[in-house]
Amino acid sequence: MVKDRNWYLVPYVVFIVLFVVLPIVLIVYYSFFDIHGDFTFENYIKFFTPVYLKMALSSFWYAFLITAFSLLIAYPTAYFLTKLKYKQLWLLLIIVPSWINLLLKAYAFIGIFGTYGFANAMLETFGIGRQQLLFTDFSFIFVSVYIFIPFMILPIYNALDKLNPSLVDASKDLGASNWTTFSHVIFPLTLDGVKSGCQVVFIPALSLFMLTRLIAGNRVITLGTAVEQHFLVTQNWGMGSTIAVFLIIIMVFIMVISGSRKRGIKL
Amino acid sequence: MRKLVQAFVTVFVISFLLIFIVNRLNAAEGYAGNNTITVYNWGEYIDPDLIDQFEEETGIKVIYETFDSNEAMMVKIDQGGTAYDIAVPSEYAIERMKENDALIPLDHSKLPNLKNIDERFLDLAFDPGNEYSVPYFWGTVGIVYNPTMLEEGRTFTSWDDLWAPDLKNQILLVDGAREVIGFGLNSLHYSLNDTNKDHLQEAKDKLVKLQPNIKAIVGDEIKMLMVNEDAPIGVVWSGDAADMMWENENLDYAVPEEGSNLWFDNMVIPKTAKNVDGAHKFINFMLDAEVAAQNADYVGYSTPNKAAMELLPEETVTDERFYPSPELTDKLEVYENLGPDMLNYYNELYLEFKMHAK
């Protein structure tokens, strides 16, 4: 009987091996070769030079900012969504923009943030005058947050929606203020949603590359930019893979420290 | 759930029906299954009317695909997923493709129109005797600028003009390691193909000093940004400059006198070709004087086709910005293939230069 059931696992195992294990093994394998195809540790030594360390640090910093701002906006949004009458409809409206191609959205923002774009026209009518918006940290983080925010709202919304309202009532009946109810009851019980939201935003934000050129005009350099350049321009697949290995290590690390311990919600 | 399945099935059925109808229509027009060629070209780099004309004249159906960098194109041809019959790489990419055995030699007897090409552009170092390639367009790298946004009388006769302290946050650069390091080298009167690491380091240090003046380093969007007057100065390829000037009449273009890059895009037949005969027909068609003239008029790049130049308006071919005088042409250099080690070094420096953004 048990043997029979193992057969159901075959497609799953094949999928995991082909599309998860094998690519990672290949990346690790390539990272030990230089451009001439000779075995070397040099790529790893090179990663620990100031150029790449600075790049890693700046990727980390921007990914952190993007995640923080997304969370700051997403949590209240998700909270109010659960209070609305047609919440499924509102949720749909938030998800729909994420179906539009990323590149298309980026190009739209070039138009909006341009010197003679919509945003500057608005600033001018309010008497603030034209500002340089495109190619600044502000526009980079703004557009990234815009793109990632549905992925932050969804898990938080799910966690909030599943929250048993009688717990909130109980907290209030026992004399807790609104803030205490939030910080001691609501937030801890939705922490799993927050964590998975942060993972889903932080990890792709770490290796963003299209936006760094289109919106930030290469004023922001992330590890993703370097990977792209090494694979497409220099054809130095070894160095590109080495950076990818570090990205994977950082991601695993993040998954571990933010791993959910399966508490709360299970009522 | 059932509705979802129904919707999916409907979409599939309709798609198949459409594919079937398109196939039938093509067959009715005489496009047999094998009689196609796949052309792999840069974006916005051909007059689409010419493709129709070629299809009508020869009965060969053209499948047209585009790429945006030589490197991306080479990777795709190496992988061999699609049977490209024509590709249009730049000169240094041709050297690399030759080394990798990725090209099929041309049969000159099938290309009678090759005689239309200006001798200056034949038999060049990257492909002696034009064994593998025929020039498609050529041009330079220079500075496009918007005099209405700058103080009156400002010109760009030297690369050093970019370093002027009053140009803070005004310059857009095209995102290419060889272009950027290249003008850094040129501004120091070194060769574009310099492999002396001290010279390269010196060029990088000089470029880092340019950072305060740089607004952004971008790709193809540079055209849109310059046309919309988002910045007054851009370092671009001459063809892109021609496009921009077509859309915004305020713009002007200059090739600095220290010298610059002279580049060629060339038609080749990659190893992936399935219809070599059709590919020759296509190359020969594009070399026809009238076709080349119409194409040059549409694309706006400089044509190497002497016969076509006679058909182009006088003001186009005498415009020294795009058909530079022999004195300047002598100072222009074609990129040499510097080998993977040097290319890697260029890119490392370029990455370091980019890192100095703040």
Automatic annotation (TrEMBL), chain A:
Annotated InterPro entries: MetI-like (IPR000515), MetI-like_sf (IPR035906)
PROSITE patterns noted in UniProt: ABC_TM1
Name of this chain's protein: ABC transporter permease
The keyword Methyltransferase belongs to this UniProt entry's keyword annotation: no
All copies of domain ABC transmembrane type-1, residue ranges: 56-258
Pfam families: BPD_transp_1 (PF00528)
Its membrane topology: Multi-pass membrane protein
Gene3D superfamilies reported in the protein's UniProt record: MetI-like
Keywords associated with the record: Cell membrane, Membrane, Transmembrane, Transmembrane helix, Transport
Main location: membrane
Subcellular location: Cell membrane
The family this protein is said to belong to: Belongs to the binding-protein-dependent transport system permease family. CysTW subfamily.
Keyword Transmembrane: yes
Transmembrane segments: 7-32, 60-82, 89-118, 138-157, 197-216, 236-257
Cross-referenced SUPFAM superfamilies: MetI-like
Automatic annotation (TrEMBL), chain B:
Pfam families noted in UniProt: SBP_bac_8 (PF13416)
Family matches, as CDD domains: PBP2_PotD_PotF_like_2 (cd13663)
Record has Signal as a keyword: yes
Gene3D superfamilies: Periplasmic binding protein-like II (3.40.190.10)
Keywords of this entry: Periplasm, Signal, Transport
Xref: SUPFAM superfamilies: Periplasmic binding protein-like II (SSF53850)
InterPro entries listed in its UniProt record: SBP, Sperm_putr-bd
Predominant location category: periplasm
Subcellular location: Periplasm
PANTHER family documented for this protein: SPERMIDINE/PUTRESCINE-BINDING PERIPLASMIC PROTEIN, SPERMIDINE_PUTRESCINE-BINDING PERIPLASMIC PROTEIN
Protein name: ABC transporter substrate-binding protein
Organism: Pallidibacillus pasinlerensis
